UniProtKB/TrEMBL annotation:
Protein known as: Piwi domain-containing protein
Domain Piwi: 107-415
GO MF assignments: nucleic acid binding
Organism: Hericium alpestre
InterPro entries: Piwi, Piwi_ago-like, RNaseH-like_sf, RNaseH_sf
One Pfam family matching this protein: Piwi
Length: 464
């Protein structure tokens, strides 16, 4: 496809780089209001037509789609009441409906009639942690509408293909070659913290995602809860070991010789903790792969990414501007305002949608790969085009963006606590501090339930 001046392209008449197989799947129809924007029942001819249209789109995109229609299940949700404010009982009904689907589907397309966050989080928690079934959620109002339906189908197909282990788009061979030789693993890391209206002591969530294929498309994730508001990743050694183990199993028992890490979610004053705390943890993980003959010492480069700054760029000449007067996608600034003592740069990879585009600040704190500034800038810009969920370059380099999404998914599992509701009766203020914190930690562990550990999900991009 041709990439336009906004750093985006269209899926029309274009096939995915690697199409997945969509077979033994199911559609779950959830009715949460009775209005004309939703499908009336599983027998609704409109629903059959929509499903067939979606299957056709998947085939056009190069996926292998069985001839049979998917299994269907329907749920009429219990309404939101005083007794069920965060829809626990409603989600229980979803569980019962999913249990009727035999054999267990490889993927469930969930059609929601409302954008209720409680229901969405409940479904993700249920399917990720307990049922081990990949899900893709869509809004019935959007998937039904003729206007823009083809585009909507295409966007849903992007997610479905990745969850089936496909590859939507990849970089050209020239760019890939630089990453494949010597073999490289690209990693994204992020931590997300509970906000002010949450139950006190609600854990923070850390995510580490890492590429496992030579296309740099699939980034499975490790997720962990950790001490509330703690910026550094406590279990990083363990998480990095998990990522390397999976890489090795997917690359006939070989390990990457280079590891490029993009670390998001660190404020400027905390860069030192990445160097003093996280890099040693990563090296400790590498040592676990030592053999008596050869120590495992991959070359490590760590880049911190930040969007929380007030720097904006304005083109000084018309040829450097897009039609909104923003800098063109791919603009790099690495002299003038950046810090002198370290290697860093601002990159705006994406085309602006509205208002002034905000570039991302990339700050190199370790560079054993000996990447020159220009090479890392070109590479970071290129990897910003591999974000699987969109047909455009994104503003934050894809692996960091994936880690961010994985953290968001982890928040679904602790949804109740993040909504400020605790069953131990601990409100945001009462109870003795340490006792309350222990109660909340125990409650969080119960909800987390060991995280995503099922064979159907743990090695795919379930969080997309």
């Amino acid at each position: 496809p041709k990439v336009d001046e906004r750093a985006s392209w269209n899926l029309r008449d274009v096939k995915f780089a690697v199409g997945g197989r969509l077979e033994n799947w199911a559609v779950l129809l959830i009715k949460d209001r009775n209005d004309r924007d939703e499908f009336q029942s599983m027998q609704d001819p409109e629903l059959t037509k929509t499903i067939q249209g979606f299957m056709k789109m998947c085939r056009l995109c190069g996926m292998t789609v069985g001839q049979n229609l998917p299994g269907l299940a329907q749920v009429d949700l219990l309404p939101k009441t005083q007794t069920d404010p965060i829809r626990g009982a409603a989600v229980q009904k979803v569980r019962e409906a999913l249990m009727t689907l035999k054999p267990k589907p490889r993927l469930v397309l969930v059609i929601l009639s409302s954008s209720d966050k409680h229901v969405y989080s409940g479904i993700k928690h249920l399917c990720d942690v307990y049922l081990d079934v990949p899900t893709v959620c869509v809004q019935s109002a959007k998937i039904r509408k003729d206007k823009g339906q083809v585009q909507y189908f295409a966007n849903v197909a992007l997610k479905v293909n990745m969850k089936l282990g496909g590859v939507n788009h990849r970089l050209d061979d020239n760019m890939m070659g630089k990453l494949q030789k010597p073999p490289t693993m690209i990693v994204g890391m992020d931590v997300t913290h509970p906000g002010p209206s949450t139950v006190k002591g609600t854990p923070s969530i850390a995510a580490v995602v890492a590429s496992v294929d030579q296309q740099f498309a699939q980034y499975p994730a490790s997720l962990r809860m950790q001490q509330s508001k703690k910026e550094m990743i406590t279990d990083l050694q363990d998480m990095m070991e998990e990522r390397l183990t999976l890489y090795r199993s997917k690359n006939n028992r070989t390990l990457p010789q280079r590891i490029l890490v993009y670390r998001d979610g660190v404020s400027e004053g905390q860069f030192a903790i990445v160097v003093e705390d996280e890099i040693p943890k990563m090296r400790a993980a590498f040592r676990k792969f030592d053999t008596p003959q050869t120590p495992y010492r991959p070359k490590l480069t760590v880049v911190i990414c930040g969007k929380r700054h007030h720097t904006r760029f304005y083109p000084t000449e018309a040829q450097h501007a897009d039609r909104d007067g923003n800098p063109r996608p791919g603009t790099v600034v690495d002299r003038g305002i950046t810090a002198i003592y370290e290697f860093d740069f601002f990159l705006q990879a994406h085309g602006g949608l509205q208002g002034t585009t905000r570039p991302t600040h990339y700050y190199v704190v370790c560079n054993e790969m000996s990447l020159k500034a220009d090479d890392l800038q070109v590479l970071t810009n290129a990897v910003s085009y591999t974000f699987a969920r969109a047909t455009k370059a994104v503003s934050l380099v894809s692996p960091a963006y994936y880690a961010d999404l994985a953290c968001e998914r982890g928040r679904c599992y602790l949804h109740k606590l993040l909504q400020g509701i605790s069953s131990s009766g601990t409100t945001a203020t009462s109870a003795s501090e340490s006792q309350a914190d222990d109660d909340v930690r125990r409650e969080a562990e119960q909800m987390w339930h060991g995280g995503v550990k099922g064979p159907g999900l743990k090695d795919i991009m379930f969080y997309l």
